[in-house]
Amino acid sequence: MAALAGAERVVTNDAWLPAVEDLILNLEANRSILGIDRIERHKTPAGEVGGEPVLAAEAEGEGCKIEVYFGDAERLFWRAEPTDSCLIDPFPGMKFDRIAEACGVCGEVVIV
Questions:
Q1: What H or E segment, with its residue span, contains residue 13?
Q2: Is residue 96 included in any domain, yes or no?
Q3: How many CB atoms lie within 10 A of CB 53?
């Protein structure tokens, strides 16, 4: 949605590898809607739950770059450059104060 709304750069992250794979599949399935010219997958570590964030894929096209990370969101911006906005979508009942603090390097932090 951020790419469709005109964001020049979108950074996504999930600590669960199947969710990251689903996101990459969604980028591939919607590449014409998103105006994606190129998708590059990178090697991800073994295991379903990530630790140190790793760049899993990059997509580019029509003025937008999308970065897909696999790992711990609390450490994401040690690896990725901060963004203008950070949208956090935690699991129900999950404590997200440390993730919100880590996203404090971004311009705006929104908890869904």
A1: strand 9-14
A2: no
A3: 22
Coil, helix or strand at residue 109: strand
Question: 28: domain range?
Answer: 9-80
| pTM of the full structure | 0.88
| DSSP character string of 44-93 | --SSSB-SS-EEEEEEEETTEEEEEEES-GGGHHHHSPP-SEEEE-PPTT
Residue 26 lies in a domain: yes
Does residue 30 lie within any of the structural domains? yes
Q: What is the pLDDT of residue 5?
A: 86
Determine the Cα–Cα distance for residues 30 and 18; give it in Å rounded to an integer. Answer: 18
Q: Which residues of the chain have pLDDT under 70?
A: none
Q: Give the residue among 104, 73, 62, 61 at the shortest CA–CA distance from 11.
A: 73
Domain count, the chain: 1
Sort 89 into a burial class: Cβ within 10 Å, 0-12 / 13-18 / 19+. exposed
Tokens of 74: 């609390």
